[in-house]
Amino acid sequence: MSRSHASMVLDSPTPPAPAHPEPARATRPHEGMPALDQSGPATSFFEFWPMWAFYPPVMAYAAWLMLRHRSILLPTAANPSFPGGGFFGESKAEILALAMRHVPEWTAPFVRRERLVGATAASVHSEAAAALQALADAGLDLPVVAKPDLGCRGAGVKLVRRPEDLQRYIAAFPAGAAYLLQRLVDQEGEAGIFYCRRPGRERGRIVSVTLKYFPHVVGDGRRTLRDLIAADPRAGKLQHLYLHRHAARLDDVPATGEAVRLAFAGSHSRGAIFRNGTHLVTPEMEQAFDAIAHRLPEFHFGRFDVRFGSFDQVRQGHGFTIVEVNGAGAESTHIWDRRTGLLQAWRDLIRQYRWLFEIGAANRRRGFRTMRWADFLAAYRREKELTPQYPATD
Questions:
Q1: Per-residue pLDDT averaged across 322-328, rounded?
Q2: What is the mean pLDDT of residues 289-311?
Q3: In angstroms, rounded to a whole number, what is the distance separating the alpha carbons of residues 205 and 74?
Q4: Which of 82, 9, 353 is nearest to 194 (CA)?
Q5: Inter-CA distances, 367 with 95, 354, 364, Å
Q6: Which of 67, 176, 380, 391 is the most exposed place for a label (fewest CB within 10 A)?
Q7: pTM for the structure as a whole
Q8: Residue 278: predicted pLDDT
Q9: Is the preceding omega at residue 143 within 30 degrees of 0, hence cis?
Q10: Which is nearest to 160 in space by CA: 174, 170, 150?
């Protein structure tokens, strides 16, 4: 988009959200992904338990590890080049900037912006214009993905296709907080690739693969979008995740065969469908991610979130783009496959925490320090304060 066109759009007051948001580009649902197995239960019985109900056994084990290793913050030493090891409250921009420096050919570029403190409604236009110019200076253009610099579980992630979308995002974003505008990798395929390498070992390995499917319903020319969501075996159970996002078009009747995507963010808590793809790892795939991890200084433990056009190509070790790198606080999200049992999910997370503390302990022996308590508490408070203020996730 040219600067002159952006200026013309941004000279007017912040526009309201359109009554009928523009649909995303036409794609076949789950294009490039392994076929989505929809047999069996739509969700597991614990899949959407509150955190206080699911995590106590895992946290009890983590507490025992803290006592055993005599350090509560030992995980912050797992990835010495990441802020706080990527354990909690870390800056996405700092980690992605590290990836851009060392593996730029694999990483989706971005710009980081800060919402002005004391900004007025009128200043939103100048902020949006400056953001568009920053994108242009970085060789980027709309559409982009907007996301908070601090946050997890898909909080505040929005698809920004037009200048008006950018204005609304900035207007709704908390003052003084930072956000990223990242090039949209406009492909249906997404996966979380969990990687682990012990310090001193030559090779690491992929320990978990989560295939992320974006939920769709398909029109029949008769029923409204509301009815289609209610009738879907999975979406019908999770209507609270989808109805508010599509409030403006719930009474529309999608054409026969028209696929309507219900969620944009690849986050389980925001409605994406997760399947365990760990059994699909190939030597070529593992070699590719091991090579990338080796090029990231002192990266030992975490998850690459990648997008792609063909998972077959990913299995061959190419054809993917990294959109996020999560460090010590990452989770082996394959546990949210509806066929994973509760005891198995707990076992997998307990194993993950054991590896995390062992890696942190090995790095401590190598001379790396854990995060200072004052810095950790400040980062924790900051993220907890900001998360409820972020715009609603797409």
A1: 97
A2: 97
A3: 22
A4: 353
A5: 22, 20, 5
A6: 67
A7: 0.90
A8: 98
A9: yes
A10: 170
Tokens in use for 325? 């790198």
Query: Of 139, 57, 151, 94, which is closest to residue 353 (Cα–Cα)?
Result: 57
Averaged confidence pLDDT in the chain: 91
Residue 22's pLDDT is what?
45
Q: At residue 133, what is the residue type?
A: Q
- 172 contact partners, CB below 8 Å, separation of at least 6: 390, 391
DSSP for 176-219?
T-EEEEEE----SEEEEEEEE--TT-S--EEEEEEEEE--EEE-
Please list the residues that pair with 217 across neighbouring strands.
Answer: 260
Say if residue 298's pLDDT is above 60: yes
User: Contact, 93 vs 112, CB < 8 A?
Assistant: yes
**Residue 145 in contact with residue 158, Cβ under 8 Å?**
yes
* pLDDT over 70 (residue 27): no
- Looking at residue 154, its amino acid is G
- The token pair at 389 is 């203020």
CB 198 within 8 A of CB 300: yes
